[in-house]
Design goal:
Blueprint (H helix, E strand, L loop, with lengths): L1 H26 L5 H19 L24 H24 L5 H8 L2 H13 L5 H18 L8 H23 L5 H22 L9 H25 L5 H8 L2 H12 L6 H30 L1
Amino acid sequence: MKNRLAMGGLILVTIIWGGGFVASDMALESMSPFQIMAVRFLLATVLMGLISIKSLKGKSHLGKSLKGKSLKGIEKEEVIAGGLMGAALFTGFAFQIVGLQYTTPSKNAFLTALNVVIVPFISFLILKKKIGVKGVVGALMSVAGVAILSLGSNFSLGLGDGLTLICAFGFAFQIFLTSEFVKKYRATLLNFIQMATAFLLSVVCLVGNGETNFQVTTKGWLSALYLGVISTTVCYLLQTASQKYVDETKAAIILSMESVFGTIFSVIILHEIITLRMVIGSAVILAAVVISNLSEIQEQTEEAAW
């Protein structure tokens, strides 16, 4: 029963994240990319901070008393871990939203979904974790899907598509780091530090680019509110809670459906025109994501059998 509810929770996350692509596109009409990110992560930091207050008063992730040993209940290792997660999260969102200025929400969504295919290769490079044959096939299919979806007639990659591909690597590292650190440290504190780090980096870029003058429409504020409260705070909390009962590789397959919902919302709300080429390219990328993760599930099953 808990497993089914958790899977339902992850599906809800993908629906909300799918709407996030449309909300970002709407917010860009009156806000700069780093203005959106600063507001988004400010809201998430405040809300995550309120949620993690109890964790700041009790014991460390090892269950030991924190009196006199750490500042406000946060240990140095947790700050470093959350900081790395936040830097990766910032990288993903920064390149995603800047890339969205030069490409469509549906292409942005499907190219972002490639992060799921990239994760196994990061694990291989850092942890020497074996990549199965299906994982390699999935990677090759994803490259083919990107080519169909994004390459022009002269085989050039559009600026927005290239930036979105970089964003996929940022999110891939965030998933990898989260998987490693959530087993060692308190999830609520990791989320709080992660959001705070992303907020600080957003403010630095905001000031550095001279984007401190806010002239935002009502639609822009509502879109930023959706991104900060619903798409970031609620979704990351729901994802963390759901993945306690769902295998992370199965969860990754479900979360890859974010790109499908992103396209659906783009058509319904933004009236985006979908071409046959976009449908084929998106289908290939989605198939690559599923095949790549089925490879990991098969390997885990074989290991359990032994």
